[in-house]
Amino acid sequence: MPTVRMASARRFLGRAQRTLWLRAPTAAVVLFLVLIAVVLGGCEYSYDDGRGELPDASPVVTDPVLPRDPLENEPVSGEELTDWAKEVMPDAEGQVFSTNYGSVEGGHSKTESTGQLPSGTYSLTLACRSERRVSFTVRDAEFALVDLSLRCGTSRVNVVHLSKDSVLRVTVEVRSDANFAYRISRI
Length: 187
Known about the structure:
Jelly Rolls; 2 helices; 25% helix; transmembrane helix; alpha+beta; transmembrane; 4-stranded antiparallel sheet; membrane
């Protein structure tokens, strides 16, 4: 009877097991991916967000936006200046310590001082009317508390705190003719 060497049989069994070990994980990964594709391929996500159906795609007619009046930021004088200052400086809450408005010629600056203000927290409202920006600087004896360039047509409210009694200096600098208004009131 012929004999089979054990060495060659062991090699065959080892090679067969290695091939199975390599094929089994690959087959499992492929099977997993196929199952995921089948499960997700049939899913549809829908929800009710509370909105109704979309309207027909008919053209929407809107009112045209009116352009801003180019003369809205032109400096004014006399009674118009007083009316403008009342409009941009609405009634303030708290005690008002200083309010002023006026005009400055282009390329110049104007500096005004308030009376002695007691220590505390203050609201500083600034406004201007000009075709260009207007620079406002508010200083006490030591520091610049506010230093900003304001786009005209809007009002700006800043909060400042005075740690001791102070006199504030308000400087308005302009490149072109401008109106300015400011109010200092205690909060």
